[in-house]
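Exercise 7. Given the encoded structure of a 284-residue chain, write a plausible sequence.
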């Protein structure tokens, strides 16, 4: 039986090569591909392979072992960057009704991390909610809020830092009143205003790596990311995120993501709708 996929793509991809690629991809990024994603891999990597005249997956794997920059490009190409403004709504309602009132009581600056921030819609949605809360509660929150945005993809991180979006992108969840208040038209693009760009930090980061350089946070958004990881890697990331949260800090996951088997680290709060995870203090 011939295991190559010549009918699906112009380069050879044996079952063994595909499995080796999946193992390498998961090792580099945590992303776990199903066994039926060969054509997706081909379509995402076609241009990269054509540039180097590669005709099969074995050549790509060999080149990745010698080139860190190529490995980054491959991981970037296979990363899903689906995002839009105020996604699912309830995390931002929870910010307004639960989290921001608590942060406003602190006598120090607050820290929020947008992990896997993609092109920045989550980051600036948080900033807009902050600006709206401060606007409607002018006497309640006097300390600053620092936002860290990270992603494994340098390409999307660059766009997030620029804060410039097409009209089509703005139609994906941005209310008109907030569009007019927090963005400025620049040709066929919309540029986020300087108010939302203050106290933001952008950093290339792989959730599969050590969290020790990240610091401590009051809130972490890690939404619609863990669905691509194995159960073992999910548990490792969630454990690391607990160590990056201050005791009592909050973790927000995607709507289909839940925490299992970490009751010693997180308390589950049902906000109806939405679930909020609060970091428990753990004895050293």
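Solution.
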């Amino acid at each position: 039986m011939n295991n190559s996929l010549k009918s699906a793509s112009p380069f050879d991809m044996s079952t063994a090569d595909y499995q080796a690629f999946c193992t390498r991809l998961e090792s580099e990024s945590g992303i776990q591909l199903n066994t039926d994603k060969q054509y997706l891999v081909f379509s995402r990597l076609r241009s990269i392979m054509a540039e180097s005249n590669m005709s099969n997956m074995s050549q790509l794997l060999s080149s990745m072992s010698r080139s860190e920059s190529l490995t980054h490009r491959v991981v970037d190409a296979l990363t899903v960057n689906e995002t839009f403004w105020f996604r699912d709504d309830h995390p931002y309602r929870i910010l307004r009704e639960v989290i921001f009132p608590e942060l406003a009581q602190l006598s120090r600056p607050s820290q929020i991390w947008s992990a896997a921030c993609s092109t920045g819609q989550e980051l600036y949605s948080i900033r807009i909610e902050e600006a709206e809360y401060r606007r409607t509660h002018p006497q309640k929150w006097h300390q600053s809020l620092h936002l860290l945005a990270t992603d494994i993809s340098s390409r999307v991180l660059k766009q997030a830092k620029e804060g410039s979006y097409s009209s089509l992108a703005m139609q994906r969840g941005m209310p008109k009143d907030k569009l007019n208040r927090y963005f400025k038209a620049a040709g066929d693009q919309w540029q986020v205003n300087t108010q939302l760009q203050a106290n933001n930090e952008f950093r290339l980061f792989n959730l599969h790596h050590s969290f020790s350089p990240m610091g401590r946070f009051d809130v972490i958004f890690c939404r619609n990311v863990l669905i691509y990881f194995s159960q073992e890697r999910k548990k490792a990331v969630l454990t690391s995120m607990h160590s990056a949260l201050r005791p009592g800090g909050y973790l927000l996951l995607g709507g289909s993501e839940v925490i299992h088997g970490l009751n010693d680290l997180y308390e589950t709060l049902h906000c109806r709708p939405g679930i909020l995870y609060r970091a428990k203090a753990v004895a050293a």
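Remark. The longest strand covers residues 245-253. Students should compare their own answers with the one above.
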